[in-house]
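User: My instructor asked us to take a sequence, write out its structure as tokens, and then describe one feature of it. I'm not sure where to start. Here is the sequence I was given:
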Amino acid sequence: MPDHDPATVLSVRGLNVRFGRNAIAAVSDVSFDVGRERIGIVGESGSGKSTTGRAIMRLLPQKASISADRMHLNGEELLEKTEREMGRLRGKDLALIMQDPRYSLNPVLTIGRQIAESARLHLGSGKKDALIHARSMLERVRIKDPDRVLGLYPHQISGGMGQRVMIAMMLLAKPKLVIADEPTSALDVSVRKDVLDLLDELVRENDSGLILISHDIRMVSAFCERIMVMYAGRVVEVLSRMEDAQHPYTRGLIAAMPDPKHPVRRLNVLDRAQIEAEVGR
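Assistant: Let's start with the prediction itself. The structure tokens for your sequence are:
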């Protein structure tokens, strides 16, 4: 194994994902590195962005076949880990924040118990200390009445508060890499920026790497240092700014988004023929 660069949290080379006997890869020859930075993966539904995130977490179904020349977390090969070893990494070194807390939180357990379980599992805390950690994390994600929220069930809190709870659970152990998959898509526009600012603040405080997965290239461009654009399972372009886009697919994504400052009667649609011609080169 080559010497590990301590500045690199995740290094992926030649990642491929197939489902069942399908000859077409859902993710094909994807390579990238993540340091202690924020990178975004954007693309339309089916582009392979979420599959890439779940492949890194090793959370794809059994029918999925994952292969890669390299998929290292801090120099350790993730594909060589057993499921038990991955279970120890998830939550502690690798964290996944899902897009809708209604389907991510356990509906029959209180908020306090769920966060406390994370503290007991990943920090080795006792029952009393775990509840103290839970309350502290609720305060950290700016929930004003943590004692009340500890006793509530997921259906009793708003979507924005639920996402804050998910961030508290996932970042409690200060993971080295956080994968946020559409973390604001289920939220009202009024609270999206607050949640992203909070996530950014905690990731920076923990000195972690962040992968933000989204279909919203404008939001990712404002939040991340680098943008990785995926189409049909492949990376077609890597940008530092949305304005630098050269690939017709990336330009099509940008043109198809409504712009409140420049309203139009009809939004553009992707020119599939041009995109396929460019990808096929």
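For the description part of your assignment, you could build on this observation: The CA atoms of residues 115 and 137 lie 8 Å apart. Try explaining in your own words what that tells you about the chain.
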